[in-house]
Amino acid sequence: MVKFCELCQREANLQCTKCRVTFYCDAEHQQADWVGIHERICQLLVPIRTQTLSLQQLSCIEKQLKKAELSDICRLVAQSKLSQGKHQEALPAAQFCLRCSIDVHGPNTVQLVPAFLLLADANMGLGNLALVAELLSQAEWAVLKSPECGHSIRHRLHRSLGRLHTATGNLEAALLHFANDIYFASEECGLDSTVTCHGYFLMADVFIKQGKMPIVRSLYAQVAYTWHCHLTELLETRLQNIRNPAMLSDFSYDHSQQVEADEMLRAILEFVQRYSRKDSTQTALVAHCLAMLWFLGDDSLKAQGFGTTALNASQLIPNHDLAEPIQVLLQLLRNPQPGTDVCWEICSSGTSV
Predict the structure, then answer these.
(1) What DSSP string runs through 216-249?
(2) Span 252-307, pLDDT tens digits
(3) Residues 327 and 350 sit within 8 Å (Cβ to Cβ)
(4) For the residues 312-338, what does the mean pLDDT come to?
(5) pLDDT band at residue 27, thresholds of 50, 70 and 90?
(6) Which of 45, 101, 186, 248 is deepest in the core (most CB within 10 A)?
(7) Distance between CA atoms of residues 201 and 241, nearest Å
(8) What global pTM score does this model have?
């Protein structure tokens, strides 16, 4: 029986010696798949791809459940690699996620849309725009056939379409899709969500290309304010846990989201410093965001650097609301294991802007 390559579907002549159910056309594709996803799922493939198992040993339902589990694993791996900017390494996981989704849900169903978007994101980073357009077209068709499709999928689809049109220079179409992205994201997550404000950031990038700087400033200000509120809440939760370790409250910090936030906030800070040199208020706000972001990410060196930038900017404004929170954050960075008094001072200091 002819075997086909796991990555490109060409005729294969190499076999994985561990699971013995996966094949490749050459060593390069075998290595790419191993780094991308196969190392994580090698043995999980054996019961699914071994044809000699009887129905008693592994029923059809069990196989579907295992494929659904594999799809989830591949999705998480691909998302992690994309958040690190490893688009090439994300491809095998994204491809396998789509194949598993098709096996579980069937072709041309709305359940495939997240996998289409994941694969499109990986190819977007590699500049394969023609393939991205094809993948997004299939995703859009699946959504159009499913009026009951949720807001989350719709906002992600419009965000991907907006990014594609931005890359191809169709800026008006990009703005339309980002507007839809913001609408559906706000319906799903709320207007003040960091998910929603990413749509504002992407829209601002289009307006930069159009030279509409006042609109860019307005959108960036909204993004910075949203992130400042979010990071302040996370910081207060972290410090409350330090003050009362016996009464730990829920603290969740998404490190993949940290990468996305860092890229956005750095871009905003660079814009403010380049085009709005006299806007010390915005400089202080954005730099304080970055200081809190890296404090929460346990990188005290970066937090110290951005905190110092924020403090210098805040000192140019008499009685600025952020001066005290910035100062006590820097104090905490100088004293990594603070006592109750320092934590209480940070938690109780004003952070309104």
Answers:
(1) HHHHHHHHHHHHHHHHHHHHHHHHHHHH-GGGPP
(2) 556 678 888 999 999 999 999 888 767 899 999 999 999 999 999 889 999 999 99
(3) no
(4) 84
(5) very high
(6) 101
(7) 32
(8) 0.84
pLDDT exceeds 90 at position 124? yes
Of 122, 126, 180, give the one whose Cα is nearest residue 156.
180
- The dihedral through the CA atoms of 259, 262, 264, 270 has a sign that is negative
Cβ within 8 Å of residue 63, ≥6 positions away: 47, 48
Are β-strands 23-24 and 14-15 bridged in parallel, bridged antiparallel, or unpaired? antiparallel
CB 85 within 8 A of CB 121: no
The pLDDT assigned to 59 comes to 62
Q: Average pLDDT, stretch 211-221?
A: 96
Q: Where would I find the beta strands (DSSP E) of the chain?
A: 14-15, 23-24
Q: Which residues contact 345 (CB under 8 A, 6 or more apart)?
A: 328, 331
**pLDDT(249) > 50:** no
The answer, yes or no, to whether residue 164 has pLDDT greater than 70, is yes
What is the rounded distance in angstroms from the CA atom of residue 48 to the CA atom of residue 111? 21
- Identify the DSSP state of 20: S
- Measured CA to CA, the distance from residue 70 to residue 90 in angstroms comes to 15
- H or E element: which one contains 22? none
- Phi/psi region, residue 230 (left: phi>0; alpha: psi -120 to 50; beta: rest), is alpha
Q: What size, in residues, is the chain?
A: 353
Per-position DSSP letters for 291-322, written without gaps between them: HHHHHHTT-HHHHHHHHHHHHHHHTTSTT-TT
Rounded Cα gap, residues 171 and 299, in angstroms:
37
Look at the alpha carbons of 155, 156, 157, 162 in this order and tell me if their dihedral is positive or negative: positive
Q: What is the pLDDT of residues 58-86, one digit of tens each?
A: 566 566 778 888 899 999 999 999 988 99
Question: Rounded to an integer, what distance in angstroms lies between the CA atom of residue 255 and that of residue 68?
Answer: 25
Helix (H, G, I), strand (E, B) or coil at 23: strand
- In the chain, what is the greatest distance between 2 CA atoms, to the nearest angstrom? 78
Place of tokens 């002549």: 13
